[in-house]
Amino acid sequence: MSGRDESTNPFSLLADETRLGIVEAIGDRSGDGEYASLSYSTIQTALGEVDSGRLNYHLRQLEGRFVEHTDDGYRLLIPGIRVYQAVTSGQLAADRPTVPPTEIDSPCGDCGDPLFVSYEEGRVFVRCPTCDVTYHRYPLSPSAFDPGDAASLADAGLTVAFADLRSMLAGVCPYCSGVVECTLSADDRGDLGLEGPETFAHLTCSTCGWFNHPQATMATYLHHTTAVFYERHGRAAPHSRLTVEGEWSETVRSTDPWRVEVRVTLDGDTLRHVVDENLDVVEWEVDGWGTTRQRPAKHGRRAVTLDRTASTASGESPFSLLADETRLGIVEAIGDRSGDGEYASLSYSEVRAALDGVDTGNLNYHLRKLRGRFVERTDDGYRLLIPGIRMYQAVASGQFAGDRPTVPPTEVDSRCEGCEEPVQVAYEDGRFFVRCPTCEVTQIRYPLSPNAVDPTDVDGLVSVAMTKIHLDLRSMLDGLCPYCSGAVHHDVSTADRGDLGLDERDAFAHLTCSTCGWFNHPAVEMVAFHHHATEQFYEERGRPGHYTRPNVDGELEVTVESEDPWRIEVRVTLDGDTLRHVVDGDLDVVEWEVVD
Ligand SMILES: [Zn+2]
Ligand SMILES: [Zn+2]
Ligand SMILES: [Zn+2]
Ligand SMILES: [Zn+2]
């Protein structure tokens, strides 16, 4: 980070009550599937009739970074939305809940005794007291679970950890969209109850320092073949269970280049994966796969309900709490030192030095304000709590050199479904676009952090944008907001989307986060499109990673079989074979099969 120059340092840029107030005012009016545009006078009123000269000045400072001015008024850019989301999730931490160790209905894989789940200091823990082993320890936002329901806590911990891992393995930081780097090493982790060294990945975000150290085997939990393999044996996928069924083993085949073989055996059948240095599955095979396709095991959807407005009633608003240069400076100083797989703890004198020797009375006062909400004091010094980390990541998402990157409309090697002409992609106003200039239709319009964009690499832009769309949708369909971990409400409607030139589509999903208002309205066939069976169907027909392309081969047919209850049939035909899905009103795939 480059000093405390307002023009380049987003922390200084935001360290003002009027500026954070503008972000808060626009964010608060968003929701119900829309991010709001506010007129100048609405903002002025929301800020208590702040004087025009002052408001103009602060709006100018925010424009292009956190806020943009359109014909409809002022609206938040992606970094502005991320700051709003981070602060909203911190709001709930005013009285951060604690869940004491509670027995859950999941046996320890080793000894068979029940596992215990707890929530302490912003982290979820899953332990076996008999074996004295911690199986799962992961930072979790308080908006992700109901403190009165230990099962929802265990579920949310697992869902968030695997959603994050899926994103990191795809090379995209789940929190700031920065680039994730991966290295492998053989580690001894007796603390996890592992005998002897196993292969671990070190995944680190190059922008915000978020990190994860999963075992190599966990990457294969998330592979589409594993989901299909478990389904065919009538078992829930391993990433959805604390106690994983099957016999798992790993063998390091080589370390230069890395090739790790992972095998899992269920009912005498073995699925074998080989992963490379990025934990990408480069090879897989299975013995004993028959031709019958089974109905997938259905697992429960989280149903935590939170009132977006409830938390604003008590305590000081986090916006005013953070609207101070010293306070954002403390968050920045601790965040900047973190990285290389660790979040730092800074001593009092280190914090003070980072703030150019601010006087101690002043520093003590501001540290006291932040403690318990954004920062905590441990024996090792001051470190960020989860809302502090999220705030750091959100502000860092507005951190980029020079002007906001733009990619002008550029033709790519992908053809429009309607007219067969090549489509164009672009990155403008913090959004990724796919358009057919011949049909004058916008096929895709999706907000994407500038951290994810290298304007000189258009193919890379398409791949990262499509991957982000895929990851966000998977997370929303799992009931979890990809940005604030809030609970996602879902609904199905037949309201047309003529604005996108999509009036021929039959049914749309409405997915909305109950905490931060983030939303997505995909056509219902997208539920089938992003399902693991579709991934395998395309891969087996020579088109791996189908969801990373703006337009894919195959004939699509959607039929609304019934509206009460919802049953929507989706068929895709490729090379003479048809994959058939049925999606219900919960947006779950309730049936799928390959029809020859
Ligand atoms: Zn045990
Ligand atoms: Zn990051
Ligand atoms: Zn076209
Ligand atoms: Zn959210």
Automatic annotation (TrEMBL):
<protein>
    <submittedName>
        <fullName>Helix-turn-helix domain-containing protein</fullName>
    </submittedName>
</protein>
<dbReference type="InterPro" id="IPR055771">
    <property type="entry name" value="DUF7347"/>
</dbReference>
<feature type="domain" description="DUF7351">
    <location>
        <begin position="413"/>
        <end position="589"/>
    </location>
</feature>
<dbReference type="InterPro" id="IPR055775">
    <property type="entry name" value="DUF7351"/>
</dbReference>
<dbReference type="Pfam" id="PF24038">
    <property type="entry name" value="DUF7347"/>
</dbReference>
<dbReference type="InterPro" id="IPR011991">
    <property type="entry name" value="ArsR-like_HTH"/>
</dbReference>
<feature type="domain" description="DUF7347">
    <location>
        <begin position="317"/>
        <end position="395"/>
    </location>
</feature>
<dbReference type="Pfam" id="PF24042">
    <property type="entry name" value="DUF7351"/>
</dbReference>
<feature type="domain" description="DUF7351">
    <location>
        <begin position="105"/>
        <end position="281"/>
    </location>
</feature>
<feature type="domain" description="DUF7347">
    <location>
        <begin position="9"/>
        <end position="87"/>
    </location>
</feature>
